[in-house]
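Need residues for this backbone.
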């Protein structure tokens, strides 16, 4: 009988460490997958291969040849399919074996033997649905509204950090670090260094926000679950940053494996007309470097946290957002592990 490789049952701990399944995750910037090329990637602790078909659509397959498990990413791009380099087996975009050149008519032909993930491109990034059951349709992906808005002009910034994905996301659910870690930055020098926070529910997640300050520093963040998990946050700009509204960030953090993360930030501003041109010019010439310097402070902090930093903490009121996030993901990991075991 033909076999399809799948990672099989995962424990709740493994899911918590390598990322939630049955949702969309940002995978990589769109321009990483060029026409005619093959891109190998690790995401959620698994190996994947991405390529663009001749019509430009991105495809994502498990990086494992159905014959003897060789990496398809070593293979050849044949327009709509990949040919494994080891013995030439050709796999189509939905994971079906299209040809076994060494043995024409072989019974592997026509069988769907490689996992293939549904893919969409959003805001210059490739997102994929990491479903546990290939027969279940992916949940609808609602694009983060700032990325769909006409009055928003965004730049995608991509980084990889040697830190677990949860550290990256928790950092975003922790606005108070702005007034300390980034206090010397161009945008987060102002405001009080003490605050009270609250959680405010929405129909797609929640706000975690200061009760006593807004529009001065990193004062709020919104966590959203719209098929993909993402945050939106806002930081006021000083007048030197040119005309237009405050500086916004849509953020997503995708596990590479249990210890490394792919971090996506769409840095945006609500600007139209000539203000949009000024924003894009200023970002490229001055602001981008400053933002990278701020992001570097986050990277250094998160990469140097102990891997088990969250095992012996003493949290206070400012950590309610982090607590909420962890509880949500822990519960979800347990539910998913149980469903995989029961399947
Ligand atoms: S392992 Fe890929 S064709 Fe044999
Ligand atoms: Fe930060």
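Answer:
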């Amino acid at each position: 009988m033909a076999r399809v490789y799948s990672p099989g049952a995962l424990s709740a701990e493994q899911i918590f460490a390598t990322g939630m399944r049955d949702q969309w995750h940002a995978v990589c910037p769109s321009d990483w997958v060029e026409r005619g090329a093959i891109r190998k990637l690790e995401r959620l602790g698994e190996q994947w291969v991405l390529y663009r078909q001749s019509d430009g659509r991105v495809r994502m397959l498990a990086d494992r040849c159905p014959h003897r498990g060789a990496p398809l990413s070593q293979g050849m791009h044949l327009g709509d399919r990949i040919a494994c380099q080891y013995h030439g087996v050709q796999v189509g975009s939905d994971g079906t074996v299209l040809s076994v050149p060494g043995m024409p008519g072989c019974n592997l032909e026509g069988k769907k033997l490689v996992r293939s993930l549904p893919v969409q491109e959003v805001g210059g990034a490739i997102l994929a649905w990491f479903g546990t059951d290939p027969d279940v349709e992916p949940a609808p992906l609602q694009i983060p509204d700032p990325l769909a808005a006409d009055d928003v002009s965004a730049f995608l910034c991509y980084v990889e950090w040697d830190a677990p994905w949860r550290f990256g996301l928790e950092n975003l659910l922790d606005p108070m670090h702005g007034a300390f870690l980034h206090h010397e930055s161009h945008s987060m020098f102002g405001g009080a260094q003490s605050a009270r926070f609250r959680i405010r529910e929405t129909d797609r997640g929640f706000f975690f926000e200061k009760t006593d300050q807004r529009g001065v520093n990193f004062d709020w963040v919104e966590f959203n679950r719209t098929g993909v998990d993402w945050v939106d946050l806002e930081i006021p700009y000083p007048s030197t940053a040119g005309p237009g509204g405050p500086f916004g960030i849509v953020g997503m953090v995708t596990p590479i494996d249990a210890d490394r993360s792919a971090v996506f930030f769409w840095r945006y501003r609500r600007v139209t007309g000539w203000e949009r041109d000024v924003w894009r010019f200023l970002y490229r010439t001055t602001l981008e470097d400053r933002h990278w310097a701020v992001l570097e402070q986050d990277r250094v902090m998160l990469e140097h946290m102990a891997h088990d930093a969250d095992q012996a903490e003493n949290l206070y009121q400012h950590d309610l957002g982090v607590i909420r996030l962890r509880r949500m993901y822990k519960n979800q990991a347990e539910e998913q592990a149980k469903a995989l075991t029961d399947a």
